[in-house]
Design brief:
The complex is a heterodimer of chains A (about 325) and B (about 550). Helices cover about 75% and strands about 0% of the residues of chain A. Chain A has 13 helices and no strands. With about 325 residues, chain A is mostly helical.
């Protein structure tokens, strides 16, 4: 197991390198120029000399391989470089937004998990009866409603009914828990609901499948209590695909809440990614994509390791 | 379907009437914000829809830098936002111009303190303008507006309270150019140590000290107690919220978490705010120094033919468009190349004679069809109109143009592009026609006409034409100090560019709409979003 874990972690490095090469090439294939966007998009007259000087200052007139080597050397020194747009270090730009995105991802995951596992199990156990139908309607609605749209509805409801709008700036949880939760609970609910819909359906189908297994029939035959069968034998084994879904959704939430962050004016990673792409801020896009890729890779490794912990039949020897 | 559309229209009309009534009642019921006695205290919270790329005014072109950073600085001279475009002294107590217009001498206020406690002298002003006019490019210093001051030979500081600008030639509007809202006055010692210090740091003499900037979130300033203008500012501080999403911005204003956004909103957004908040908000509106134009690629056939270009501009009903589009977008005034209502505005009688500005659209479109026939352009000829993927007001303008050209038998494909691609195509000449735009803080032909010089002279001439007549006129405009003569030359330039050769199409100018809570006092809208906000003048009612 330890050997397997070490091998998996060692593979993270070449995977990230491959991702880095891919990102570096892809961002430069997209037409557009950060200097032009920054200096001309406001409608003012700017001379070509100024544009050229700025391009040179940012190192954009260097050969591509030169730019890549520079970036790689920085990476090995754990220096992601500076944002071409703001001049601020990429690590700092990300560092400002990461706590919010991580907290929101954790809150949404908790909400989703707390809702999905009991609901999915109830639906499976009560298959074909009214609780199953209620849960299915609830989860299909969650799948059909985009979280940003639900977010807009929540804001309109709060504003029009109570004249209340959640705080617009982020306060760290430990500094001001009240303001922090007042801001993040609404997007967490909006995102968590959609997320729970996916997980509920997965839990239902996984539990249904497990309930048809021979060892469950054996457990019934042995006269085990219903609760014991569900908890010990059915749910534990049904959790494997559910964990995969929850894990991957968690990784997605770190950088994927682009529109929801806009709707609630959250200063998160998703909004930063969109800004960086719109501004053709190469260094920042590279740093952000690496962050998202790292999140996905690590979540996958953790899921693999959890598999072994949950299912004794799985061995990584 | 028709019934539904009719009902929607009826609902809109009713809502419009309600909004108009609320506005009218609001205006009558309460005094305008500028009328009351200033009151000290409070923090003004306002919105910026974009974030500053750097904090250095000399190297930026965007309001996103000005709106949060400006309150930390003073200027040598500035536009008086209560009486725009009047220029008043800020750090300059007074100034004189020599008889020949070649020397400008400014007397500097004494007792002005920087936020670090040091005293401002003329050396700081000289260092500031040296950085703007003669930037140390070898040290990576970039000055966007260097070309605007090409007439300056030298800036001198003969004594601590005097600054002298010596010019190469006399020109009109020199003091207005110095009053650029981007020309923050910096400290000479700091610039000497690190000429790029101000890109990432704030340290000025302005009414507010810098407190905090959290990227993507907010910017905070606090009253500078040692401010030279005793009694000002009235506010204890200000807080700028960075909100990119329009719906979140509207929600913030409606909830009262922010009192205003100083760039402008669309008519629908105005109605939304007024509908939700009622007479607690008031709406100010003014013509805007921004416009939408159409760049024509004169290197492509058949747009290399002046007859085709004239036909394109003749087909556009600007007067009808102004009336219709102003209901849905922040565009309205009809004008030539200089802002309608501004110092160099073309007189109405003259304007109506330009191709495409006539009120008789039937005749204009007949003439357009005739010109297309003469140029050999067949009925149903297809081309692409490229445009930015920004709804307000670009989309409305693009859709309107497509319809106008359809009416002279042209088949136009409207292609909206994301910013990066849009500018790349425009620069590379990879377009037939493209919706373009310009925004500025000043009505000055030197600034506004520069873009339309020959492509080997102007770096932003996307049309690709070469016209020495325009270049010559521009040169004369720049060296003419007499305003009347200057205006005559400007109109000659406009006739050549918009009518005779129709190199570019001016569609409509923008109209600013600023709804704000009535608690914000002392604020008066100007013709542009660059000279605002002037926070030293604002206060909050109880």
């Amino acid at each position: 197991m330890t050997r397997y874990a070490l091998t998996r972690f060692a593979l993270v490095v070449p995977t990230l390198l491959a991702v880095a090469v891919l990102i570096f090439v892809l961002v430069r294939v997209v037409p557009g120029d950060i200097v032009e966007l920054r200096l001309v998009s406001g409608g003012s007259y700017v001379t070509a000399g100024v544009i050229e000087a700025e391009r040179a200052r940012l190192g954009l007139n260097k050969p591509l391989w030169d730019q890549f080597v520079e970036w790689m050397v920085g990476m090995f020194r754990l220096d992601l470089g500076r944002s071409m747009w703001s001049g601020e270090s990429v690590a700092r730009e990300i560092g400002i937004r990461l706590p919010l995105s991580l907290q929101l991802a954790v809150m949404a995951t908790l909400i989703a998990t707390v809702m999905a596992i009991p609901l999915g199990t109830i639906a499976a156990v009560q298959r074909g009866r009214w609780p199953d139908y209620v849960v299915q309607v609830f989860s299909v609605a969650g799948l059909s409603v985009p979280s940003f749209w639900l977010g807009i509805l929540i804001i309109l409801f709060l504003l029009n009914v109570f004249g209340y709008l959640p705080p617009l700036t982020f306060s760290p949880l430990l500094k001001d828990p009240g303001a922090n939760l007042a801001q993040l609970i609404w997007p967490a609910l909006a995102v968590g609901y959609r997320y729970s819909a996916v997980a509920t359906r997965m839990t239902r189908s996984a539990v249904l499948e497990v309930l048809r297994e021979d060892y469950i029939r054996t457990a019934w035959a042995k006269g085990l209590a219903r609760r014991m069968i569900l908890r010990r034998h059915a749910l534990r084994n049904a959790m494997l695909p559910v964990i995969t879904v929850i894990g991957l959704e968690f990784a997605f939430l770190i950088g994927g809440l682009v529109v929801t962050e806009q709707v609630f004016n959250l200063n998160g990673i998703g909004k930063l990614i969109v800004d960086a792409i719109n501004q053709r801020d190469y260094t920042l896009i590279q740093g952000l994509m690496l962050l998202v890729a790292t999140a996905y890779i690590l979540v996958n490794v953790v899921i693999d390791l959890l598999y072994a912990a949950l299912d004794p039949r799985i061995s990584y020897g | 379907m028709t019934e539904m559309m009719g009902r929607t229209r009826a609902v809109r009309t009713v809502l419009g009437l309600v909004a108009a009534t609320v506005l009218a009642v609001g205006f009558l019921a309460a005094p305008t914000p500028a009328q009351q006695q200033p009151r000290r205290g409070g923090t003004l919270v306002y919105i910026s829809t974009s974030q500053p790329p750097s904090f250095d005014g000399h190297r930026e072109t965007t309001f996103a830098m000005l709106h949060p950073v400006k309150p930390h600085y003073n200027y040598l001279v500035k536009f008086d936002t209560q009486n725009y475009p009047k220029v008043v002294g800020d750090l300059a107590e007074s100034w004189t111009a020599s008889r020949d217009g070649m020397t400008y001498t400014f007397k500097i206020r004494s007792g002005v303190k920087f936020h670090d406690g040091s005293t401002l002298t003329s050396r700081d002003i000289k260092a500031t303008y040296d950085k703007i006019i003669f930037p140390k490019e070898d040290q990576g210093v970039i000055s966007i507006r260097k070309a605007m001051y090409h007439m300056v030979r030298v800036v001198e500081a003969p004594d601590p309270q005097t600054v002298v600008f010596r010019l190469k030639f006399a020109t009109a509007g020199f003091v207005e150019k110095l009053a650029s809202p981007f020309n923050f006055v910096y400290k000479a010692d700091i610039l000497e140590r690190d000429p790029r210090f101000y890109e990432r740091n704030v340290m000025g003499t302005g009414p507010f000290r810098f407190v905090e900037y959290v990227r993507g979130s907010h910017w905070v300033g606090r009253r500078f107690e040692d401010y030279w203008d005793r009694g000002k500012p009235y506010l204890d501080g200000y807080r700028v919220l960075f909100i990119a999403s329009r719906s979140a911005m509207l929600a913030a204003i409606k909830s009262g978490q922010a009192l205003v956004e100083f760039r402008g909103v669309s008519p629908a957004e105005r109605d939304d705010i007024v509908g939700a908040v009622g007479d607690k908000v008031m709406v100010q509106s003014s013509p805007w120094q921004c416009n939408n134009t159409v760049a024509i690629n004169t290197k492509k056939k058949p747009f290399d033919d002046a007859r085709v270009r004239r036909a394109l501009t003749l087909a556009i009903d600007r007067w009808g468009g102004s009336q219709a589009l102003s209901q849905i977008a922040f565009i309205q005034p009809v004008g030539a190349m200089m802002r309608p209502g501004g110092d160099y505005d073309m007189p109405q009688a003259e304007l109506l004679r330009l191709a495409g500005y006539s009120r008789n659209m039937t005749a204009a479109r007949q003439q357009a069809r005739q010109l297309l026939r003469e140029a050999g352009v067949p009925e149903g000829f297809s081309f692409t109109l490229k445009n930015r993927d920004i709804s307000m007001p670009y989309e409305a303008v693009g859709v309107y143009l497509v319809d106008q050209w359809r009416q002279i038998g042209l088949n136009v494909r409207h292609e909206q592009q994301e910013g990066g691609r849009y500018f790349a195509d425009l620069r590379a000449g990879n377009y037939d026609l493209s919706v373009d735009f310009a925004c500025d803080f000043i009505d000055d032909p030197d600034v506004q006409l520069q873009k339309f010089l020959s492509s080997d002279v102007s770096d932003l001439n996307y049309g690709g034409y070469v016209d020495r007549q325009l270049d010559g006129l521009y040169f004369r405009i720049g060296r003419t100090a007499d305003k009347t003569e200057r205006a005559r030359l400007v109109h000659q330039f406009e006739r050549r560019a918009l009518d005779e050769q129709a190199y570019v199409i001016y569609v409509l100018w923008w109209q600013r709409i600023i709804p704000h809570w009535r608690t914000l006092r002392g604020y008066k809208t100007t013709t542009n979003h660059y000279v605002e906000p002037d926070l030293a003048e604002y206060w909050l009612a109880e």
